[in-house]
Amino acid sequence: IMAVGAVMYFHGFSNGGSLLTLGFLLTASGMILWFRNVVAEGTYLGSHTKEVQTGLTIGVALFIVSEIFAFLSIFWAFFHSSLAPAIEIGASWPPFGIEALDPFAIPLLNTILLLSSGAFITYGHHALIQGNRSGAILGTLLTIIFAILFTGLQYFEYLEAGFTIADSVYGSVFFCSTGLHGAHVIVGTLFILVGFIRMINYHLTDSHHQGFE
């Protein structure tokens, strides 16, 4: 519903915005109920046995593999188009008429934020395993802050872009890659935020932290 609503909204259909909002609310409701069940099963009901934890770990690993291939397809499109630009786009990269963003402006800052947030979440993870509760909370909190800053800067980068997703393969690859990555950052931030709240409420400890990993 959300995907159909988004397509209708971007194409100017009158009910597109309403359908998009409905789809978003349904998706958000599903996520909230899923998080509620996972927290209840893992914290209060004792349903996350060793076998269940192994299954969750394998499931996440398979998900990561699928994500690798998803991004690989986008990078394949980028290198295929940039290393040997077709005559239809002016035999140049970026294509004729498109002004690329300055890589040493927002993209560089976002890269620093992304790498820093990765370092902070790794620190928080190791602190949690070692029983350092304050360090785990601090590392996770800084990760959330940096992720929010990253998302905000990504939004401003879109505002500065002088091209759209419809501007040849360059615009398509740019917005598909950064949009997909941005969606992952937003969802990942929500997951980490839930883990942060659980950590504060003593749901996650040095001996019970499957939900954080």
Gyration radius over CA: 21 Å
Strand content: under 5%
Structural class: mainly alpha
Broad CATH class of the largest domain: Mainly Alpha
The CATH architecture of the largest domain can be given as Up-down Bundle
Helix content: over 70%
Helices and strands, in order, run as HHHHHH
The whole-number mean of residue pLDDT values reads 88
Envelope shape: globular
Q: What is the CATH topology classification name of the largest domain?
A: Four Helix Bundle (Hemerythrin (Met), subunit A)
Number of helices: 6
> What is the rounded distance between the termini?
31 Å
The CATH homologous superfamily name of the largest domain equals Cytochrome c oxidase, subunit III, four-helix bundle
Unreliable stretches? none
The largest sheet, given as strand count, sense and whether it forms a barrel, is: none
Strand runs, count = 0
Q: Please, how many domains? A: 2
Notes on the protein architecture:
Helices cover 74% and strands 0% of the residues. By secondary structure, the protein is an all-alpha fold. The mean pLDDT is 88. The protein folds into 2 domains: 1-47; 68-201, Cytochrome c oxidase, subunit III, four-helix bundle (Four Helix Bundle (Hemerythrin (Met), subunit A), Up-down Bundle), CATH 1.20.120. α1 (2-10) packs antiparallel against α2 (16-44), α3 (50-83) runs antiparallel to α6 (168-200) and α4 (106-129) runs antiparallel to α5. It holds the Pfam family COX3.
